[in-house]
């Protein structure tokens, strides 16, 4: 029964769309453009870099959304029903929604662009989850090495449904790989000689980033939840041990909660990062510079 509701929604919106003054065109130049949907905006940026004028993209989540619990809007479901390609990155909400996307569009091709990435468990420096198998970290796009794997997968996916533009996709790939390598060397340079290697962050989005640059992430959330008072006390003791003076938070987190948290810890500086920003290059540089300042 649950499954029926979104389908009915989509159908009613689709009927609405068909009745609108702009009919859906076929066999025109516009229909040559591939409609691509991604789950996160940073991967949409990558598809735009590689696909250029041959793609029309949308991302389901962007700055301030929570991809752990996200639900697509009716407008996104309509666009999904017209998409040629859906690029999944294995983010939580996708496990529920990708089957619904397939139901709403039988010709939709779904490709996992995170295939080939070695997923790591979410950092747990205080062993709060010692008894359980740790959850694997979904924030794969926040590290250059992973972004290169994603870029390769994007190119294969585009070539697969649009082989006539393969040469363009391949040459755009070379360009974007150069940009990613350049960011990687800048970040290595910035983060190689810092005073400390440990950082405190509310939501554990920088696990792959930490792994890439030899840093240790100390998350405040435990299993996606607020820590218990006992857990919080242990987290604070650890952050004091490392003389941590910055608390990383993210776009969308209630600033009042963060303020209270910073006061409790005596931490002076709060830095907001955006794990879902569209412009991946600018975002990685911002995170790198903020991290460099926090570690010195
Ligand atoms: Zn997250």
Overview of the structural elements:
With 296 residues, this protein is an alpha/beta fold. Helix 7 links the parallel strand 5 and strand 6 (216-219). The chain starts with a helix and ends with a helix. Residues 1-28 have low confidence and may be disordered. It has 2 domains: 4-184, Nitrogenase molybdenum iron protein domain (Rossmann fold), CATH 3.40.50; 191-294, Rossmann fold (3-Layer(aba) Sandwich), CATH 3.40.50. The radius of gyration is 21 Å and the shape is globular. The strands form 2 sheets. The protein has a 4-stranded parallel sheet, sandwiched between helices. Strands 6-5-7-8 form a 4-stranded parallel sheet, sandwiched between helices. The relative contact order is 0.13. The chain has helices spanning 4-19, 41-51, 74-81, 92-104, 144-161, 166-191, 207-212, 229-241, 255-265, 280-294, and strands at 34-40, 55-61, 85-88, 109-112, 198-201, 216-219, 246-250, 269-273. It binds zinc ion (ZN). Zinc ion binds at residues 68, 139, 203, 205, 275.
Topology readout:
Layout: H1 4-19, E1 34-40, H2 41-51, E2 55-61, H3 74-81, E3 85-88, H4 92-104, E4 109-112, H5 144-161, H6 166-191, E5 198-201, H7 207-212, E6 216-219, H8 229-241, E7 246-250, H9 255-265, E8 269-273, H10 280-294
Parallel strand pairs: 1-2, 1-3, 3-4, 5-6, 5-7, 7-8
Helix pairs in contact: 1-3, 2-5, 2-6, 5-6, 6-10
The protein binds zinc ion.
Zinc ion is lined by residues 68, 139, 203, 205, 275.
């Amino acid at each position: 029964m649950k499954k029926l509701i979104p389908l009915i929604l989509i159908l009613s919106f689709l009927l609405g769309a068909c009745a609108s003054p702009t009919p859906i065109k076929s066999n025109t130049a516009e229909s040559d453009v591939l409609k691509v949907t991604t789950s996160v905006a940073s991967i949409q940026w990558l598809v735009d870099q590689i696909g250029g004028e041959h793609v029309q993209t949308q991302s389901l989540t962007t700055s301030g959304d929570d991809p752990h619990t996200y639900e697509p809007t009716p407008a996104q479901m309509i666009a999904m029903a017209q998409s040629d390609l859906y690029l999944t990155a294995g983010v939580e909400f996708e496990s529920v929604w990708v089957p619904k996307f397939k139901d709403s569009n039988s010709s939709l091709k779904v490709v996992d662009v995170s295939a080939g990435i070695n997923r790591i468990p979410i950092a747990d420096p205080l062993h709060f989850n010692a008894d359980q198998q740790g959850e694997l970290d979904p924030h794969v796009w926040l590290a250059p090495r992973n972004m290169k794997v994603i870029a390769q997968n994007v190119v294969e996916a585009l070539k697969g449904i649009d082989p006539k533009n393969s040469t363009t996709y391949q040459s755009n790939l070379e360009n974007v790989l150069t940009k990613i390598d350049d960011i990687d060397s800048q970040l290595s340079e910035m983060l190689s000689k810092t005073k400390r290697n440990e950082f405190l962050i509310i939501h554990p989005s920088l696990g792959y980033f930490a792994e890439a640059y030899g840093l240790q992430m100390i998350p405040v959330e435990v299993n996606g939840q607020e820590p218990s008072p006992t857990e919080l006390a242990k987290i604070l003791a650890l952050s004091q041990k490392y003389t941590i003076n910055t608390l990383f938070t993210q776009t969308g987190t209630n600033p009042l909660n963060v303020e209270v948290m910073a006061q409790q810890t005596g931490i002076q500086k709060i830095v907001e990062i955006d794990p879902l920003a569209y412009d991946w290059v600018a975002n990685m540089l911002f995170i790198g510079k903020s991290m460099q300042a926090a570690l010195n």
